[in-house]
Design goal:
Number of strands: 0
Number of helices: 3
Order of helices and strands: HHH
Distance between the termini: 71 Å
Number of domains: 1
Strand content: under 5%
Length: about 160
Amino acid sequence: MRNQGLQLGTPVIILSVVVVILVAGFAYDFATTTSQISNLNSQVSTLNSQVASLEQSGESLCVQLPSLKTLLSNVTSTLQSQVQSDRSIIATLNSTKPSGYSGMMATLNSQISNDLRTFDQIFSVIGAPSISGSSGNGTNPCATFQSVQASHEHT
């Protein structure tokens, strides 16, 4: 009889051990998942704060952009005049062809071309007219920012 009781007790003990192991595993998974959720919530909070800061910076930039475009237009006009003046001087020097000036003229022409390319690239970023007369890339960074911001608010 004692053997039968022992035989019945063994499966109960094994089952109890399995249940304890499963409960411990679930408790560990729950604790780990809870910790991960807390970390993710903290990261979301940080990202939301960064987005809000970027939105404020974008709004500030868009408020200042019209005056910046006016300033760049004035700078562009001044630089166009300077480049034209330099080209006139180069043309005059080339027509008289003084000794040693042909190398300098090639260098000056190269520098003017490089300057024009640089200004074109800078002005194309904000869509302002450049020194060489191109009108930029036609994009309005504030319109892009505002459309992204609006779509962000609807989500």
